# Entry
Amino acid sequence: MKNSQQGSIIVGIIIGVVLGLAAALAVAVYVTKVPVPFLNKGQGRTAEQDAAELRKNRDWDPNAPLSGKNPAKAVPPAPGGNIAPAPPVATIPAPDSVVRGPASAPRAATRSQDPLGDLAAARTAAAATDPFFYFVQAGAFRTPEDAEAQRAKLSLMGVEAKVTEREQSGRQVFRVRIGPFDKKDDADRSKERLEASGVETALVRVQR
# Structure
């Protein structure tokens, strides 16, 4: 009787072990067929799409818009309209000489007593009619670190530059610019100096 009970216990243990192994096997098969979260994410993209995206990012040049446009780049006018040109500077003639006597002598044509002052006033009036400011751009960069490195390089050359940020073609671009200059001639001189030092530049004009 005792041997029969022991045999039943052993058979029950064996059956339990077999059932447990079968259940574990079924769970393993189920797990291997079910997608694992986060591991299957992004498998919809093909290798060709990834390669095309990589080439697009590698070939993108933030300075492309300035290529072949060194003379000057027009910028859309800022809101507010154009500034009216300054009125011409009037020259006050010297007082007429007075001739005592019964009749006055005819007036002689008067000349300005300050020709250099008249020339400076004329140049000032001409400069006031220019509706643009001018900048010399010494490069556009993808990262602020590269732009700051360029600005530091110009600073060592004695040129003060500023870094400005702008969106271009859907990407952020960091531009290094010198200026603004009121006159195009001043901007041209600065541009020539930088190019003589081996720095590639572009002249940019902006509505006042």
